[in-house]
Amino acid sequence: MNSPSHDLWSFCLSLYAAPGVAEACLTAQDRHGADVNLLLWAVWLAVQGHDLTAAEVADAEAATRPWREEVVWPLRAVRRRLKTGPLPAPDANTESLRTQVKAAELAAEKVQQSLLQTLPAHRRTGGPVADLLRANLSLLPGGDVLAAVTIPLHADLRDGSGAVLGSPA
After folding, report:
1. What three-state secondary structure class fits 41?
2. Is residue 161 exposed (0-12), middle (13-18) or buried (19+ Cβ within 10 Å)?
3. How far is the C-alpha of 120 from the C-alpha of 117, rounded, in Å?
4. Distance, CA of 95 to CA of 92 (rounded, Å)
5. Can you give the pTM of this predicted structure?
6. How far is CA 132 from CA 28, 42, 91, 168, in A?
7. 22 CB contacts (<8 Å, ≥6 apart)?
8. What is the C-alpha to C-alpha distance for residues 79 and 95, in angstroms, rounded to an integer?
9. What is the largest CA-CA distance in the chain?
10. What would the pLDDT profile of 10-26 be if each residue is shown by its tens digit?
11. Percent of the chain, pLDDT > 90?
């Protein structure tokens, strides 16, 4: 991730591919109940210099909850279930289906991120990215735990020159 990205989806794909980030996000999701899309949105906003408020996080969570619970989570559950069963899974035929469900799950997450990208309506600038990152993450459900779990994000937001990755030029 060497070029700036103003688009949430592109930013998330690049950041998620950085060493340790996917594992940190999945730990936050599976062990602490984090919504990874909400988490990455908070990171994206921090990189843009936006200092979230508790009300903005609550609004984003409320706006995306129905989609996440009714579309993203059921697709994820089916994809994960196809990994081990029920019969005839797992086999070559069900692996093809699992791949299709995975693509649908990813498309559903992209829809959620499209909604998140429009929030909050009015952006403010805050302080240094590292401070904003910790502050933004601490406002998410599970706050301090998520900030600790996602420490790899802190390192992976900087390239070799010390410039913040994904930030506007």
Report:
1. helix
2. exposed
3. 8
4. 5
5. 0.86
6. 19, 9, 46, 16
7. 16
8. 9
9. 54
10. 999 998 888 888 888 88
11. 52
